[in-house]
TrEMBL record, chain A:
Residues 85-294 form the LUD domain. Signal peptide: none annotated. The keyword Ion transport does not apply. Residues 324-391 form the 4Fe-4S ferredoxin-type domain. Residues 403-475 form the Lactate utilization protein B C-terminal domain. Transmembrane segments: none annotated. SUPFAM superfamilies: 4Fe-4S ferredoxins, NagB/RpiA/CoA transferase-like. This is Iron-sulfur cluster-binding protein. It comes from Actinoplanes flavus. It comes from the Bacteria.
TrEMBL record, chain B:
The lineage of its organism: Bacteria, Bacillati, Actinomycetota, Actinomycetes, Micromonosporales. Coiled coil: none annotated. This is (Fe-S)-binding protein. It comes from the Bacteria. Residues 3-83, 134-218 form the Cysteine-rich domain. InterPro entries: Cys_rich_dom. PANTHER family: LACTATE UTILIZATION PROTEIN A (PTHR30296:SF0), UNCHARACTERIZED PROTEIN YKGE (PTHR30296).
């Protein structure tokens, strides 16, 4: 006999960063008018697109690698519970401790308790989307613990009391003069003569971070991958701050979304080729750190893994939507997205911006809480082509739109249009009626909402004298 | 060859010149064109706006209307894309396996105009004459959904008198996206502004594409700004001859 336990829960409200304050179109309004932001975004996304495109073109088997990545992820999702149980066994055997967190609140509580037990009032963090998602920094601060972000861009965001706007380059919306101002204002012990020369800015961050690395005994990380067969966790990064966080402290706490597990060590050969080329446009990422439980006398002696659900089981339950869990957080879809390039990440309201955010965030929270996101796309398909694991984002957007709550007036208009178009004679009559209405009304400007958005920036076409079908009938 | 013509609701209603041009072109090339009067709309607007249930009768209508024809052509990459990539999917996700199979079969016989000419009719020089400076915008669905590739450009390169100029950042979306242009009008306009800048930079007097919808969007912007550049459907260029 089986017992129905109910549908899996979505991510809880009131904690974390998966929901914006306002719908996408309103949030985008401010970003579109910010000329500095527009310039920064255009420059950054164009540069990354170029770099990534060049190194991808070097690989003759790129499309086959994408197929392999997609197939491995589909396999993982089809047997996720078994793989997670295997991972737990291997991590435990290697001296690590595995914690299961159903949602953001549970994960925050687990991590806070672990830091308290370690007796530290400060933690160093290597960039992690999962801890951003659950609002771990706020939870730690509430408990009197100071989290220090050690990824340069995350540090800029943290010191600027700001929110990340890109998965991989979280401070993409800032330029160097803004970064100089943030450092002068908020970085402890900063040189007041600081210039906006990038090497000078990097050196200031390095000096501050080195002191912090050497004097903090607890680190919190995310994970890019976890290998079920060996219990190995992995982080890939570019600055070496991750390597410091993962090796220097006595206690290492990793918060990882349950979808990150891979079956075998060998699977890394696919993802370590796909990820750097798709994300930073590098052939190989500068630092790859792998650790398996505890190695006595070497590295962290207390190793914890927090497996985070926070809505992921609910995503997995949707056979179309679950592809969103295949994401390896490379952000290639952001860099090619014409919408993201113009609005930036903050308009999406979630830590997961861009096309992948538009399909992931509404599923993690439940569609009601992010109903505008599946519409934040022209369905141009550039994201699908760029995705290293071939996530069909446009089809998922269409799927989620079908589940989204619809405005009553729009629903009525769509039903009327479908009714008319299902009846060719009525349809032909409506075509002529529309033409008459156009002749009676003003031409090209000042239509009422929701059509006003069109006429604000574009003329309407003139109605022709004759429809095609009338022309055909008279031939 | 006997070719069934799916005019698309947009060309039928608002852009009949594109539809008429498709007919004239195919007839000039010696083919028989039939226009089944029962056709209306492929349902793409409904599917893409989140109304699959409402789209279902339109998907059924398309399959019923065109199932009896061997070759069907639409002057739109986007409508052909919806028919080929969405019809069967929507039917099957609504539990209608019979319709899904029928839709898949009709979809396999549905071509966008440049595909029909190059792949089916095996012709690149259609004998057209069009003495203008023209730039070509590859629409997103023709490019990334049905992958027409450079077929439209191969057709345009054979047109007598035509000065074809390359559009910078051609593969970026113009910002139309159906109801996206209404729901996210400001972001759409920002995308359109860049597309127009690129079009104007070519010095072309005509911007062409294989979709009336994208051309309506681009043309609406170019007209509002009084750029003097006009939009013309690919079919109209290919249908033009020295005597017309």
């Amino acid at each position: 006999m089986t017992t129905f336990l109910g549908m899996p829960a979505t991510a809880p409200r009131g904690v974390g960063h998966l929901r914006g304050d306002q719908p996408f179109p309103r949030a985008a309004h401010d970003a579109l008018g910010d000329s500095q932001l527009r310039r920064n975004l255009r420059h950054a996304t164009t540069t990354i697109r170029g770099k990534s495109g060049r190194v991808i073109a070097e690989l003759p088997d790129w499309q086959r690698l994408r197929d392999a990545g997609s197939a491995i992820k589909a396999d993982v999702m089809s047997r996720l519970p078994d793989l997670l149980a295997e991972l737990e066994s291997r991590v435990t055997e290697a001296g690590g401790v595995v914690h299961w967190a159903a949602d953001a609140n549970e994960a925050n509580r687990i991590v806070t308790d672990l830091v308290r037990r370690a007796g530290s009032e400060r933690v160093i963090k290597v960039k992690s989307m999962a801890t951003q998602e659950i609002g771990l920094n706020e939870a730690l601060e509430d408990a009197g613990i100071t989290p220090v972000e050690t990824d340069l861009a995350e540090l800029i965001v943290q010191l600027g009391d700001d929110k990340p706007s890109h998965i991989l380059v979280p401070a993409i919306h800032r330029n160097r003069s803004e970064i100089r101002e943030i450092f002068l204002r908020a970085m402890p012990g900063v040189d007041p003569e600081l210039t906006d020369d990038p090497p000078v800015l990097a050196a200031a961050a390095r000096r501050y971070l080195r002191e912090t690395f050497l004097s903090t005994s607890v680190a919190v990380s995310g994970a890019n991958f976890a290998i079920a067969e060996t219990g190995t966790l992995g982080v890939v990064e570019s600055e070496g701050n991750g390597r410091m966080c993962l090796t220097l402290p006595d206690t290492l706490i990793t918060v990882m979304g349950i979808e990150k597990v891979l079956p075998t060590w060998r699977d890394l050969e696919v993802f370590l080729q796909l990820l750097p080329r798709a994300s930073t446009g590098e052939r190989m990422n500068p630092y790859t750190t792998m650790w398996t439980g505890v190695t006595p006398g070497d590295g962290p002696q207390n190793v914890h893994l927090v497996l985070l659900d926070n809505g992921r089981s609910a995503v997995l339950a949707d056979t179309v939507g679950r592809q969103a869990l295949h994401c390896i957080r490379c952000s290639a879809c952001l860099n090619v997205c014409p919408v993201y390039e113009r609005t930036g990440g903050h308009a999406y309201g979630s830590v997961y911006p861009g096309p992948i955010g538009a399909v992931l965030s509404p599923q993690l929270t439940g569609i009601e809480d992010n109903a505008s996101l599946p519409y934040a796309s022209s369905l141009c398909g550039a994201c699908f082509d760029a995705c290293p694991v071939k996530i069909d984002i446009p089809s998922m957007l269409v799927h989620l739109r079908d589940k989204a709550p619809h405005p009553p007036a729009e629903r009525a208009a769509m039903a009327a249009a479908a009714y008319t178009m299902s009846r060719p004679r009525l349809y032909a009559y409506a075509q002529r009626a529309a033409k008459m209405a156009r002749i009676a009304g003003r031409r090209g400007r000042g239509l009422p909402p929701p059509l006003s958005g069109w006429t604000a920036g574009r003329d309407l076409p003139e109605f022709p004298e004759q429809t095609f079908r009338d022309w055909w009938a008279q031939r | 060859m006997r070719i069934a013509f799916f005019a698309t609701c947009l060309a039928d209603t608002l852009f009949p010149e594109a539809a008429k041009a498709t007919v004239r072109l195919l007839e000039r090339l010696g083919h028989e064109v039939v226009f089944p009067f029962d056709q209306t709309c492929c349902g793409q607007m409904h599917v893409n706006t989140g109304y699959q249930t409402e789209a279902l009768p339109l998907i059924r209508r398309y399959a019923q209307t065109f199932d009896r024809y061997e070759v069907i052509v639409a002057p739109s990459g986007s409508c052909a894309g919806s028919i080929r990539h969405q019809h069967a999917m929507v039917a099957s996700s609504h539990g209608d396996a019979g319709l899904a199979a029928r839709s898949a079969s009709v979809a396999a016989r549905t071509y966008e105009l440049s595909e029909l000419l190059v792949d089916v009719l095996k012709i690149e020089d259609v004998g057209a004459y069009y003495p203008h400076r023209v730039t070509y915008h590859p629409t997103c669905h023709s490019l990334r959904m049905i992958r027409v590739g450079d077929k439209p450009l191969r057709l345009l390169r054979q047109v007598r008198g035509l000065d074809l100029v390359e559009l910078p950042a051609a593969e970026q979306c113009c910002g139309f996206g159906g109801t996206f242009a209404l729901k996210n009008a400001e972001t759409s306009t920002a995308m359109l502004a860049d597309k127009m800048t690129n079009i104007v930079s070519t010095g072309a007097d005509v911007c062409t594409a294989g979709d009336s919808s994208c051309l309506m969007h681009i043309g609406g912007g170019l007209s509002r700004l009084r750029t003097g550049v006009r939009t013309v459907h690919l079919a109209e260029i290919l249908a033009s001859t020295e005597s017309t």
